[in-house]
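Chapter review: from sequence to fold.
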Amino acid sequence: MTDAAVVVEELVKRFGTFTAVDRVSFEVRRGEVLGFLGPNGAGKSTIIRILCGLLRPTSGRVQVAGLDVTREPEAVRARIGYVSQRFSLYDDLTALENLRLFAGLYGVPRGARADRIRWAVETAGLAGRETALVGTLAGGWKQRLALGCAVLHRPPILFLDEPTSGVDPLSRRQFWELIHHLAAGGVTVFVSTHYLDEAEYCNRLALIDRGRLVALGTPAELRSTALGGTLLRVECAPLGAALAVLERTPDVLEAAVFGDALHVRVPDAAAALYTLPRALAAGGLRCTGIEPIAPTLEDVFVYLVGTAP
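The token string follows.
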């Protein structure tokens, strides 16, 4: 991969006898939005902290913006921006006062601060709210402000650790518009998230489970190649009873409730279209609809996390 902003090779991080990150390798291009997905405790935040120069890796090579995070962690931190899940600015200061404070902390030259703050206000869509106390702002506006503060020093790489947790859907969409605006300007963006609908906004996705990288690709690639077999949508009621029947049916690889139907993974769709309704009928249930469907990212996530060694 050319034009790599981040290079990770055989990254390992241990805490005592516990391996939090286990031989993870990937590269990220300049201007790419990479989504980190995985269950709680999978190792996503640990990897991000290592990339930010906040944790020292046990072994492996990690290069961020051309710098080795083990040898030059302070230089790495000067070249990145970071927004955490927990709002980390000052509620008793105004938006403008927070921006001025962080401009100083990030070492923005005094002669450039006014222009940078004005740019951050415009980029984050905060015009008209500069004098509002941060404690009075809604969650979406707070995260916009946090993003504005994080990019005051124009970092080439931005790390967002579950930045939209607890933010309403409209504000999340607006926040992602800001992310893509920055990426279009060449900023590389890492986003860890639990929202699978957000994952669709990423250029590529890295699925982390139990410290390992179990999948890496575009959302379309993961949907088309990650699952084994064929996915069927099965309509039947009640769902709980139907699920119990199909989980006992031979050749059903996996079955799960999905909305008002079941998603059932099978090795042979043609045979299953005949055998599954018969199995449900034998259990006293009637199948009202069955058809092959394209898998969602949720299907891929559940499958990969459930089957990873």
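Two observations follow directly from the output. The first helix runs from residue 44 to 51. The mean pLDDT is 89.
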